[in-house]
Automatic annotation (TrEMBL):
Gene3D superfamilies: P-loop containing nucleotide triphosphate hydrolases. GO terms for cellular component: plasma membrane. It comes from Candidimonas nitroreducens. Signal peptide: none annotated. The keyword Zinc does not apply. Transmembrane segments: none annotated. GO terms for molecular function: ABC-type amino acid transporter activity; ATP binding; ATP hydrolysis activity. Residues 2-235 form the ABC transporter domain. Belongs to the ABC transporter superfamily. It is a peripheral membrane protein. Keywords: Amino-acid transport, ATP-binding, Cell membrane, Membrane, Nucleotide-binding, Transport. InterPro entries: AAA+_ATPase, ABC_ATPase_HisP-typ, ABC_transporter-like_ATP-bd, ABC_transporter-like_CS, MetN_ABC_transporter-like, P-loop_NTPase. This is ABC transporter domain-containing protein.
Length: 243
């Protein structure tokens, strides 16, 4: 469904992505991990046009990303869940979820509202449907953000460190929703340091360092601490799994 072919990107003279290639099949869950500043978030943001790239090609469900593509339309098909939720503070949970379907997909307001409530029920938040973001916990806001992405009927969802801004006790409630989505067959690319989630849900794990893909392998192979593993990956896992 998603093909990232030899993508390279620069910010001025600084190269942030170096010849990266990834394939993601329909229904596959791919976890992207690596040290801070390695290019993880930049890589997934190229998939829906939130970041440009200077070399290579990306194909999403048969459509090549180039300057002529309708990026707003692409973003209705490839959802995005951000680290900081990015909810509109002046809109209720329901209104945050219905805005996209009404404005971008021209859906009937009543139908969009009905679907929003069904999605809020799905993420365990129907009783909070009329609350504003400031009245919700971080974990609740992130679940609203996931419901908002689902409201657009996406073919895939990108998650950019969705739990890193949450207090530890709120992480599980968000990961549980993401696990349910994965079990239902949603195509997902997830930038995260939650290795427990990767072990439980991922089909593959990609490790990025210095803008390059160091390893792309099934999760069982990624967590196998054999001698053949790249030293950089073993060091990363030794640090992150010790916490």
């Amino acid at each position: 469904m998603i093909e990232i072919n030899n993508i390279s990107k620069w910010y001025g003279k600084y190269q942030v992505l170096n010849d990266c290639s990834v394939r993601v099949a329909k229904g596959e869950v791919v976890v992207v991990c690596g040290p801070s500043g390695s290019g993880k978030s930049t890589l997934i943001k190229t998939v829906n046009g939130l970041e440009s790239f200077q070399q290579g090609d990306i194909v999403v469900d048969g459509t090549h990303l180039n300057d002529a593509i309708d990026f707003p339309k692409l973003r209705t098909r490839v959802g995005m869940v951000f680290q900081k939720f990015e909810l509109f503070p002046h809109l209720t949970a329901t209104e945050n979820i219905t805005l996209g379907p009404i404005k971008a997909l021209s859906r009937d307001k009543a139908a969009a509202r009905e679907k929003a409530h069904a999605l809020l029920r799905r993420v365990g938040l129907l009783e909070h449907k009329d609350k504003y973001p400031a009245q919700l916990s971080g974990g609740q806001q992130q679940r609203v953000a996931i419901a908002r992405a689902l409201a657009m009927d996406p073919i895939a969802i990108l998650f950019d460190e969705p739990t890193s801004a949450l207090d530890p006790e709120m992480v599980t409630e968000v990961l549980d929703v993401m696990t349910d989505l994965a079990n239902e067959g949603m195509t997902m690319i997830v930038v995260t340091h939650e290795m427990g989630f990767a072990r439980r849900v991922a089909d593959r794990v990609i490790f990025i360092d210095g803008g390059s893909i160091v390893e792309d392998c099934p999760k069982e192979e990624f967590f196998d601490n054999s001698e053949r593993r790249p030293d950089r990956v073993k060091y990363f896992l030794s640090k992150i799994l010790s916490h």
